[in-house]
Design goal:
Elements lengths: L3 E8 L8 H5 L10 H20 L5 E4 L7 H14 L2 E4 L7 H7 L11 H19 L5 E3 L5 H10 L5 E5 L5 H5 L38 E4 L7 H4 L9 H6 L11 H12 L7 E7 L15 H20 L9 E5 L8 E7 L2 E6 L5 E6 L25 E2 L16 E8 L2 E4 L7 E5 L3 E6 L2 E4 L4 E11 L4 E11 L5 E10 L14 E5 L5 E4 L6 E5 L3 E6 L4 E7 L5 E8 L2 E13 L3 E10 L2
Parallel strand pairs: 1-2, 1-7, 2-3, 4-5, 5-6
Antiparallel strand pairs: 8-9, 9-10, 10-11, 11-12, 13-14, 13-20, 15-16, 16-18, 17-18, 18-19, 19-28, 20-27, 21-22, 21-24, 23-26, 24-25, 25-28, 26-27
Amino acid sequence: MQNDFIVNIIHRPEMVPEYAEKVTGQGKKEDIGRKSLLTESLDIFKFQQETAHKNGLKTTIHMTYASLFNEEAVSIAKHDHDEYGDEIALSLLGLPCEEFRKKYNTKDFCIWMFSMEDKMRIVDDVFGKFHDIFGFYPESTGSYYMDADLTNYIKSQYPSVKCAVATCWEEGPKAYHTCNNSWYTLFDGGPWNPWIPSKQNTHAPAANEEEDSGIVAIPHLSRDLIACYDGNGSNFGTHPQNVLRGMIYDTKTWEYPYLYNIIDQYRDLGKYNDGYSYNMMFVGPGWLNKMGRWEAPYELLKKSYEDGMAYYGKLKKEGKPYKEPECALWRDILYGSDKQVFWYADPYMRACINMDQGGALVDLRPYVSKLEWKVGIGTPHVQDASYPFLIQEKYRAGYFTHYAGEGTVRSAKISHGGEEVDLCLCRTKAHFTETKDAKILTLDPVDIEFYDLTVTLQTVITFEKGSSAVKYERKILKMSDPDAEVAINEYMVGCYGTTEYPEDMTNITLAVTGGDNEGSVKYEYKCREIASQGASEASALIPDIDTLVSLKTDAKDASVYIREGYAFSPMYTLGMNKKITEGEVVTTWLNLAKAN
């Protein structure tokens, strides 16, 4: 198998670096044109460029709007393009400057939060000025997030653009809370590596040429796919100064093996993605402030950047290269646990499988719906650009809830003699294989102990390419009493939303198809349940996110059911109950479809 390692090094001459005005301007009236601020920013940009070139690395220079008014920044970009072959591109970050504030009479700076009218006006302004200075239009652009309408407009007016930094992986409520509830950049639910965004929604990959937006999107940072998901993503990634902020280094020696481990784990993803893997390092100048950041002095900030760049340079010299993965079997490299998760993304879904919970599905985004989620002033979502979830253990409890209610998860329960065990309590490990048409996880068998019976069960989870289904196969390998019988309850507890707060569930319709008691209920928080022997499918129609989710089985003797939640536990449950014996396999599919 080939082993291609693609790494993006992006620098931007941000004339008013994030947070830096408050630091350099201590005790002074706000002045984003302060000479000391501009001088320091350019010094940092030059240091970053020199560090990359010293290690034999080319960069992409993302010129900001503010930098287009600075002759020295323009001169450096032109020189490094001619001397080192660096790409000159255009960032939609770095809008704040005196010229921008006077022209647009606002302190807003996140391009996706403007009205569509202003987005178009700003894009034409910035792209036009870029062309006036460099004589060509850029081939790449980007921001923390770029909504589909913005991307479509840029591609239609400036077809030279082929690539864009389009989102920041898992930058949602968790990041908001760890920034003192002040970082209004809510856009989690997207891919963690390069993808072709659809015209309908930036997060959702295009399924065909008709949906293709015409660009390749990349995330703002390459982040730890466990630590970032479990906690604050701003501390865990291939951003040296983020690692310092997370205190993941030796305070005496100033060494940070975690940084190299995470880079290496991204390289390792080639095993699961046809030999291709990808990595990103994108550090704005504000992170190398001369007065230090957080608890780290400038000397440590500088050293971490130099060491990180040197590591990429070393890998390049050794010929160990990266490209676009579709899935990631990720292990904990931060806390020393045995935790392992599997991420999967395609045009139909994004899913996370947690082996610490017996292979439970703990995050599910229905990309198949291709939600047209308008963002910015004048839309229903001024700030919240996240792609809605059906299952999300961090925002909607998952298996481990505090009280009597249920949290969102896709798992199974095994019962015998009045006892019941949920597979969420059975830790295991996964082994990855693939065929031409599928990515397959085979989990290590788990032993389930009842009072008078021990059951050894194995789970195989299959993601079929071109399908919007997750296939679960459960097999009883052996039982201490070969003649015994146990019951299996395959279930999904779901809801929908983008935050921790419940949405209105009353538009949802739950249904059981087939069998002796086919029926449906319109959600009213009344704890109703329908079970049908011999049915083939339980489903939930969720018009608010244009999604139909269903749990299907091919077992003829199963009891398929739906269960409505209540106000304190505003979820729904889709499930299937069946008796099972030694050697038998139960197969179910969790299917997603666009509602209309």
